[in-house]
């Protein structure tokens, strides 16, 4: 038979898809961690920088574990319904995973967890599309010492 000349979808990306085995390993690691730790918290974040979060994660590493990634995979790991859940009531936790969210599993008491998360807030440069929280105004008198060439460069 002759080869088909229809348009075929060709992937231009050289990265390989993460298969079912990768997702299953994540599900298994979340389930193992859920058995090891007493408490599970869902946290949300905005404009999180990896370096800042890495420092926070390293600080809490001896007593806890963080999971970030696909919300659907984490929901499957915890259980989406009463029949799927691995521990009683965990299907309610999986319903809270929406948007930019992650799981925090720990043996620490609740007061200590809340204080750690409340203390961890660092200011950083805004990303594109971020709404300014402060208004900065410059006086015209401050611009007198700047030469014309410096203004044209900007």
TrEMBL record:
It comes from Gossypium raimondii. Gene3D superfamilies: 3.30.70.1730. Belongs to the universal ribosomal protein uL10 family. Coiled coil: none annotated. This is Ribosome assembly factor mrt4. The lineage of its organism: Eukaryota, Viridiplantae, Streptophyta, Embryophyta, Tracheophyta. One of its GO terms (molecular function) is RNA binding. It comes from the Eukaryota. InterPro entries: Ribosomal_uL10 (IPR001790), Ribosomal_uL10-like_sf (IPR043141), Ribosome_Assembly_uL10 (IPR051742). GO terms for cellular component: nucleolus; preribosome, large subunit precursor. One of its GO terms (biological process) is nuclear-transcribed mRNA catabolic process.
């Amino acid at each position: 038979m002759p080869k088909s000349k229809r348009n075929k979808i060709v992937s231009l990306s050289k990265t390989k898809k993460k298969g079912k085995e990768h997702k299953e390993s994540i599900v298994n690691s979340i389930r193992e961690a859920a058995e090891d730790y007493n408490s599970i918290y869902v946290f949300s974040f905005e404009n999180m920088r990896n370096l800042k979060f890495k420092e926070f994660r390293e600080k809490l590493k001896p007593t806890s574990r963080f999971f970030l990634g696909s919300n659907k995979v984490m929901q499957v790991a915890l259980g989406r319904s009463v029949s799927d859940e691995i521990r009683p009531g965990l299907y309610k936790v999986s319903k809270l995973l929406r948007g930019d969210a992650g799981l925090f599993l720990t043996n620490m008491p609740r007061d200590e967890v809340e204080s750690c998360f409340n203390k961890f807030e660092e200011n950083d440069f805004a990303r594109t599309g971020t709404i300014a929280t402060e208004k900065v105004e410059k006086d015209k008198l401050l611009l007198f010492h700047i030469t014309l060439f410096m203004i044209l460069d900007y």
